[in-house]
Known about the structure:
Number of helices: 3
Distance between the termini: 18 Å
Strand order of the largest sheet: 1-4
Largest sheet: 2 strands, antiparallel
Radius of gyration: 14 Å
Low-confidence stretches: none
Number of domains: 1
Order of helices and strands: HEEEEHHEE
Shape: globular
Strand content: 25-35%
Structural class: alpha+beta
Amino acid sequence: MFGRVFGGATAYPKAKGVWRDDERNGALVKDEPVVVHCYTTRADIEDARHLAELGTFCRTMGRDARQGEVGLVIGDEYFAIREFTEE
């Protein structure tokens, strides 16, 4: 999706992470997330069709990987995607 829509991306596997699971009384959970880094143009990221496809990708990935959250950073703004049903 990233290559076709935005021109490419690089994934960095085996990152080390920790997150607080508020549904389990704040238990700290260690994980090894995959970070995907993608540069694109303002025109491409502001295109409604591209944003819709990116949203679908993030929701599908979150649902299929059984995640509690998929984090998306655009510019300097963080978007927490926690609802994985299709819109």
